[in-house]
Amino acid sequence: MGQLISGPVTFKDTKVWQNSQFSVAASSMQGWRVRMEDAYACFLNLPTSDSLSPPTAYFAVFDGHGGTKISEYAATNLHTKIMAEPAYAKGDLVGAMRSGVLRLDAEMQVKFTGHLSHSNTKRSPFDLPDVEVEGRSLFPSSGGGVDVGGSTCIALLLRGNHAYCANCGDSRAVLSRQGVAEALSVDHKPTMTSEWSRIVAAGGWVAANRVNGNLALSRALGDFVYKRNSTLSAEEQIVSAEPDVTQCELKVTETDEFIVLGCDGIWDVMTNQEVISFVRSRLANGRPLDLICEELMMHCLAPNCNPNGLGCDNMTVVIICFLNGGTYDDLKQRCSRLCPAGPAVDVLSP
């Protein structure tokens, strides 16, 4: 657990956006941590010079650790990397998100450590082309051990009736399907069989449920001290930046109501269903979306520094509500429908 302070910082950096398709709010709170290391990015419609390109929304949360360099750089630049991928222009958003995340990580390693110490990806010496920052070499014989921290990445593209979710780490995306929580991502933890196997094969180990006894997640942007094996690809390193990318068909005219993106400061305290029920019950009561974000974080905030650290982390949440050409009041009515999972527990009601 990171360093804590004597009392929580409860100031909230909250923003809202809305168009005919979405109502969105995002909020971050430092909490009990010494500094705020999270970052997020929201675009209701990604900018493009191609007038024929279909409208695409982008939302992402980055939970930094060991500093803010990686989370802040990723929040500023990931969407441009995804859009620059040849796969993006071809409509292959799954491929674009995967290669865009890997490209960004390679670029950050060059930028922040001076070189790229692994052999890029499984696909070619660089199927992710031309990563160079300030003229520094991509292929030194060794190195890459500068510790600049790291970050999770949970990124969401919405195009037409599909959601594309790229996950690297243990932040999450969860869809409300008529009040039932449906996970769009799976946490990357070192205790997972596939993750453990990669870690050990790359020369690492798992102790106390952590990579090399230190890192609680097994995939991340940054964390370049775990990416120094020059004989392995980016995907094969002790800690990998390879995202799992999922595609989900949305039913916004039928059952789908909203998606919640959040860091583990939220999900360590509440289950997926608890978060969905918390948000949905407040939407059904017409609560403003920005206040729902803030109330969710305050609900997760620990009243004191407890030994297990739950509720003491930085917190960031993004809620994307589907308007589908309707109004916020229409959304209120949709969220008032009976939930097949049953009523929310009392503690989650407004």
Describe the model.
The strands form three sheets. Strands 3, 4, 5, 6, 7, 12 and 13 form a seven-stranded antiparallel beta sheet that branches. The protein is α+β, with helices and mostly antiparallel strands and 350 residues long. It is globular and about 55 Å long. The protein has one domain (4-348): Phosphatase 2c, domain 1. The longest helix has 21 residues, at 93-113. It is built from eight helices and 15 strands. Mean pLDDT is 89; it is low at 123-145. Strand 1 (4-18) and strand 2 (22-33) form a beta hairpin.
Tell me the number of structural domains.
Answer: 1
Discrete helix count = 8
String of helices and strands: EEEEHHHEEEEEHEEEEEHHHEH
What number is the mean pLDDT?
89
| CATH homology superfamily name | PPM-type phosphatase domain
What is the fold named in CATH at topology level? Phosphatase 2c, domain 1
What is the annotated CATH architecture? 4-Layer Sandwich
Q: Could you name the ranges where pLDDT drops below 50 across 5 or more consecutive residues?
A: 123-145
Oligomer: single chain
Q: What structural class should be given to the helix and strand makeup?
A: alpha+beta
- Strand element count: 15
**Helix percentage range:** 10-25%
Strand content: 25-35%
